Amino acid sequence: MTAAVFVLLIALAMAASLWGGRGGAHQKPEDFFVASGRFGSLLFFVLAVGETYSIATILGVPSGVYAHGTGFLAWFLGYILLAFPVGYFLYPAIWRAGRRHGAVTLPDLFGRHFRSRALERIVALNCIAFLLPLGVLQFVGLGTVLAALHLTVPPLALLGIAGALVFAMVAVSGIRGPAQVAVLKDALMLLAVVATGGAAIAWASGQGDGPAHAASPPPPAPTAWPVDIFAMSTIVLQAIGFCLVPQTVAAVFTARSAATLRRAQCAMPLYMLMFPLLVAIATVARHLPSAPADANAVFVTLAGALLPPWAFGLVLAGATLSALVVLAGICLALGPLVARNILPGLDGDAQRRAAKMVMALYLLASIWGAARFHGLMVSINNLFYFGITQTFPGLVALLAGWRVRASAIVIALLAGDALAIWLYEAAIGLGGVNPGLVGLGLNAAILGLLSRLWPARSPP
């Protein structure tokens, strides 16, 4: 029953994707990648939610609380909540600049504003390099979810099938396919969290069915992450980076107007109502007679133990679609980064063909990475933000119209990347400060210094 419900819902999602993107083979690149900026408030909202709340949220929050205690939520909730007001002001400015320059990607914006192909390519390469951990993150989560189906298919083959579904979704439909699937994904994701969280609370209060309560006292809670400098610095870094993720910027360019973006940001925090249920899931999981050995599997393990088979199939489908929609968004952001910003002079058809090839290679590389990575999902999430956030100082200069040389932005960005990664890999203590924020500070300092000592001759 679980597998039947799961397959039915995934098939329904794929049908919605193909229907929503019919005629995609004849779209021009701007329509294929960003719908030529025609999405209204509702469609943009569900697409933005699809990019915001992924399998990393559904599985990552319970796994983090299970492994680290509720102190983990200080930065996880903090950066998501802070990102909404940051986006409220930043997204309309990016959208207006994108319309002014005819941009489809963030590197488009940099290259055309500063009239520098070298800067455009450096920004594109920076985005591409740090998008790989995000794809691995989604497939790690997918591996955990699909394993719960207990199929006889090898795990790597299941990930390959998931990757093929993502590729079909984007190759046939462009951005409109994932936007249609996001509607179903949102409904199933909320149902999954409410059903599992409600069952967990009912079981904890002795009113629900499920495994017998543990006779012995529960294990001691993990040491909570202190609400200290690390939490505060990570909140600031990731709230900024959250608004600069390539697929999020691509979603911004799909909006019909700046007002559409502001309305969506006002409604986004409503989805955070599911976080108390995710915390309840992690808390109850620690009281199960057989506690999950893998922290990433907390959500799936509890859902399987407390829900009937048909409801468990719904939960697995919702979690799977939350990963597929994000992967589709990443692919649609990554494809034009190569086809438009790295490879010069491609026409519309050639751009789409090159983008599809890049998407396929990215999905394969992410599957390979997921098959060999077994760490905690939130750790991959941290690494992703180190580099993505480094475009922020240059973007501020762009939006403010400062007289900055393109070469100064390149030097500052690469210095920020290098310092953040070196500090992280060398495990150098910084009194709790997130290495990515230190790199971002160096980036901003270099850019500010060079803009004064070596300003551009004329405004961009």
UniProtKB/TrEMBL annotation:
InterPro entries: Na/Glc_symporter_sf (IPR038377), Na/solute_symporter (IPR001734), Sodium:Solute_Symporter (IPR050277). Keywords: Membrane, Transmembrane, Transmembrane helix, Transport. The keyword Hydrolase does not apply. It is a multi-pass membrane protein. Pfam families: SSF. It is found in: Membrane. GO terms for molecular function: transmembrane transporter activity. Its main location: membrane. The chain crosses the membrane at residues 72-91, 122-149, 155-175, 187-204, 224-245, 266-289, 354-371, 383-402, 409-430, 436-454. The keyword Nucleotide-binding does not apply. GO terms for cellular component: plasma membrane. Belongs to the sodium:solute symporter (SSF) (TC 2.A.21) family. This is SSS family solute:Na+ symporter.
